[in-house]
Each structure stands twice: as structure tokens, then as C-alpha cells.
Amino acid sequence: MVIEKNKVVTVHYTLTEGTAAGPLVETTEGRDPLAFIFGVGMMIPDFESNIEGLKAGDSFAFGIQAANAYGEYDEAMLVDLPKDIFKQEDGSIPEGLLEIGQVLPLADNQGNHFQGMVAAVADTTVKIDLNHPMAGVDLFFSGNIDGVRDADQAELEHGHVHGPGGHHH
Ligand SMILES: [Zn+2]
């Protein structure tokens, strides 16, 4: 059985930055493989196009440019927010909250939740980087296909995999 739309794919992979020899981002080595339904928008499209047609036991190694992964780094996504919004009721700012590199949960006035990283702290403002943490990073995937099977009706309705590597409910 080969990988195509609506198959459940389990895959062992290692993700590094730029090339196979680049800094390690994450790996499934030593734990359960990643399980996902192919062709339903769960994965980066270029990841899927690179493994389409493979079968269990096949290996792969390919790169994906940042623009086709988590996007290019965008300077316009650096925003200045007033420091006041981070104050607690007593007027103090929680210790460690506004340290550079800290990832903060934020919400806009439409109630949308998102994350931003503290990039710089000035007297009255905080510069928050709203880029995805992997923005501007070229990805390199290597690994092998662990298994390919048909998704069942419930999995297709729920949009996720049941059983090993997926949801248990
Ligand atoms: Zn489910």
C-alpha cells in the first residue's frame, strides 16, 4: 500500500535546520512514530508531496525552503506593546515575564489567542516577535515510513488518527 490521500501514515523522522548536518529541531527516534492522515491538511504540503507514493520501509531525505514551511521571517511581525498591559492588579510585572526569549500567550481585541516572543524591553514598551518560532528556517527531514493503512470512517470524520501514535478516546 502506498501513501496517498486518506491513508494513515506512521513515520519516523528527524528534523534538522537547513541540512542533514544542521542543528536538531526534533526527532521521533526512541519514541512512537508520528501518525497522521495524509492529504487532509495536517502536515506541511511540501512534506506530503515528498513522501507521496512511498510505502512502509521506504526512507526519505529532503529539504523544504522556509517560504514553503513556516514562512519567511517578517520584520513587520515585530510589534511594540505598552509594558502596562503586562502589569498585575498590584501594578507590578511578574518576575521573569518580560525576559528576552520568553514566549507569552497573547490575545487581540477580537479574542484571538496567539503567542509572541519577547524580543526587546524598553522603558515603557516591549517589542514582541509574532513570527512563528521556525519562520525563516529551512527545514531538512530524514527518516523512514513505518506504516501505511486506510483511515477508517471515524478517523476521517474526526480528522485525526486513532490508536497508536494518535488519539485514544
Ligand atoms: Zn477521534
Q: Could you explain the architecture of this structure?
A:
The mean pLDDT is 94. The protein is elongated, with a radius of gyration of 20 Å. It has helices at residues 45-51, 153-158; strands spanning 7-17, 24-27, 34-37, 59-64, 78-82, 103-107, 113-121, 125-129, 139-150. The chain is mainly beta and 169 residues long. Strands 1, 2, 3, 4 and 9 form a 5-stranded antiparallel β-sheet that branches. A 4-stranded antiparallel β-sheet has the order 5-8-7-6, with no helix packed on it. The protein has 2 helices and 9 strands, in the order βββαββββββα. The chain folds into 2 domains: 7-70 and 135-158, Chitinase A, domain 3 (Roll), CATH 3.10.50.40; 75-129, Beta Barrel (Thrombin, subunit H). The two termini are 27 Å apart.
Structural key phrases:
169 residues; mainly beta; Chitinase A, domain 3; 4-stranded antiparallel sheet; 2 helices; 9 strands; elongated; binds zinc ion
Spell out the blueprint of helices and strands.
Elements: E1 7-17, E2 24-27, E3 34-37, H1 45-51, E4 59-64, E5 78-82, E6 103-107, E7 113-121, E8 125-129, E9 139-150, H2 153-158
Antiparallel strand pairs: 1-2, 1-3, 1-9, 4-9, 5-8, 6-7, 7-8
This protein binds zinc ion.
